[in-house]
Amino acid sequence: ACKMSLRIYSGLKLISKCLYSNTKCGHNFSAIGELCDYIRKPSYWVSKRYYVIGEYDKLWQAVSSGKGKRGGKKRTAAKAIDGEFIKFGKANMQFPGLNAPLPIKDRERSEKKSTFPKSDRIKHAKFDASLRGWSGTSWPGRYAGSPETPNKEPIEDFKSIVIEVKKVSVTRGNGKRKRTSAIVVVGNGKGAIGWAIGKASFAASAIRKAKNKAVNYLHYVPVHADKTIYHSIETKVNSTTIKFERKVPGHGRRCQRIIRAICELAGIENIRCKIVGRTTPLSVVKATFQGLALQETHEELAERTGKNVVEFRPERGNIPVVVATPSEASVLRRIEREAKGDNDDISKYFDPFMNSHRPKTINQIRQS
């Protein structure tokens, strides 16, 4: 029907054109009848097929706005299925819970609360958040277990935490060699900590190499009796600067996550740290170890100054308490310095560490 209507439409349009100008069709027609006979011939529609198709496309574009048919599978209605969800038949039957209320016994049973004792209920095991790492299930931040000796015997006093796991590659003559690098920190919670880098084809092998290697490079970090550092200190490695602040008991470890992991393995519980500059894991680990090692204990301060070290503790009403006493040799050295007239030197009054803790130098750490 659509094709027939298009043919009639095309024919009428052609008739109007031919009446207007007989030369349009390339034929001379003396009457409309001759023109209609010519249009009915199949040869005309074969020669003018492009004209019919063009008009059909224009008509379909006008109807569908040029979008064409919608894609996808044709939707067909399901057979022998009524569209209504709930319907009553001729018998007018009632179904409890569907079109009729539930019986009283069933209602009481459904509304009855559970009377099981708490001890019989299923107890779900609590997941330890420290085992999942810093971000999801990735390696950094996870405990890697205790390091092992060459005889595969675990060292139970030490624990290890993964700091970083990354992919590295080395260019050789035969191409690039891809490997995995891992940074692991170990410690016993009593001031002995160490770190190392392990490389292997897989992450698990690199972590195992790193933690077993870190036990051979331990550093001793002085820890105060209050589970904190002895004094505030500032250190710098490359472009990373870390400021350590001593805090009272109960403050917690308020610092960057790498520093928090190192302090946990060292046994420090109360500390505050601030990083200025880059936070590259390797630079942060080096700066943290260097800062904790630069501490000067109360005993070292007493030996250097030749005087008693006193603290004002709030739990004792801010009464001064002697925490360190110098030896006789250090007291004699102080008396000799005062007898020589060193008190006339005013430059010591501009010393920021006068009569207080002075951080050690890197050379002093290397010599010790």
From TrEMBL:
<comment type="similarity">
    <text>Belongs to the universal ribosomal protein uS5 family.</text>
</comment>
<dbReference type="InterPro" id="IPR048584">
    <property type="entry name" value="Ribosomal_uS5m_N"/>
</dbReference>
<dbReference type="GO" id="GO:0005743">
    <property type="term" value="C:mitochondrial inner membrane"/>
</dbReference>
<dbReference type="GO" id="GO:0003735">
    <property type="term" value="F:structural constituent of ribosome"/>
</dbReference>
<dbReference type="InterPro" id="IPR014721">
    <property type="entry name" value="Ribsml_uS5_D2-typ_fold_subgr"/>
</dbReference>
<dbReference type="GO" id="GO:0003723">
    <property type="term" value="F:RNA binding"/>
</dbReference>
<dbReference type="InterPro" id="IPR013810">
    <property type="entry name" value="Ribosomal_uS5_N"/>
</dbReference>
<dbReference type="Pfam" id="PF21251">
    <property type="entry name" value="Ribosomal_uS5m_N"/>
</dbReference>
<dbReference type="GO" id="GO:0006412">
    <property type="term" value="P:translation"/>
</dbReference>
<dbReference type="InterPro" id="IPR005324">
    <property type="entry name" value="Ribosomal_uS5_C"/>
</dbReference>
<dbReference type="InterPro" id="IPR000851">
    <property type="entry name" value="Ribosomal_uS5"/>
</dbReference>
<dbReference type="Pfam" id="PF03719">
    <property type="entry name" value="Ribosomal_S5_C"/>
</dbReference>
<dbReference type="Pfam" id="PF00333">
    <property type="entry name" value="Ribosomal_S5"/>
</dbReference>
<keyword id="KW-0687">Ribonucleoprotein</keyword>
<protein>
    <recommendedName>
        <fullName>Small ribosomal subunit protein uS5m</fullName>
    </recommendedName>
</protein>
<keyword id="KW-0689">Ribosomal protein</keyword>
<feature type="domain" description="S5 DRBM">
    <location>
        <begin position="158"/>
        <end position="221"/>
    </location>
</feature>
<keyword id="KW-0496">Mitochondrion</keyword>
<dbReference type="GO" id="GO:0005763">
    <property type="term" value="C:mitochondrial small ribosomal subunit"/>
</dbReference>
<dbReference type="InterPro" id="IPR020568">
    <property type="entry name" value="Ribosomal_Su5_D2-typ_SF"/>
</dbReference>
